[in-house]
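Exam revision sheet. Question 4 asks you to relate a sequence to its structure. Input first:
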Amino acid sequence: MEPLTLLVGFFTEFGYAAVFSVLIACGFGLPIPEDVTLVTGGIISGLGYTHVATMTIVGLAGVLVGDGLVFTVGRVYGTRVFELKWVKRFLTPKRLGTVREKLAKHGNWVVFAARFMPGLRTPIFLTTGATSQVSLAQFFILDGLAALISVPVWVYLGYLGAERREWLMQWVQRGQAATLTVLGVALVGFILFHTFRKRNAKRCRA
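Answer key, structure tokens:
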């Protein structure tokens, strides 16, 4: 049985609490995509088991609490967190190197972008907390802004496609690819803008 069907049954049985709990577990590396979890929450709303607006709020809460807990674990343990066995399972030396490189290049905005990068989301939040690069308040602002974009999109996609599962999963896959493409274009644009602004500032001083 596919994960989506299992989640629909589980969420139908236990409602908002199940969605909230699974989203928190996703933050700690549960092998269920967060996007699929949110879409499934929308599906049970589309089927009439929950209210879609309430589900969106529950989704936002679950995402932010899960992300905040991951960040806090990193902050409490510091760099020692990378030696924990459960962390080593998903945060390989290569992945850790990639995360550190992105943080060094792009700074705090990597926290915002991490919401749209499923494979690096948890490692980025954990590493950001461990290195104390941003405060807890800054983390929630950046992550919250990103969640306000992504969470409603996935929940309402599930709500609108509740009766057409195959069509829905096609759009989930397309949505993930499109999100990464848009994010990549935006990131390149930001880097170019930042570079040109620096050059213009140097010319003005000269």
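Marking note for examiners. The two ends are 67 Å apart (CA to CA).
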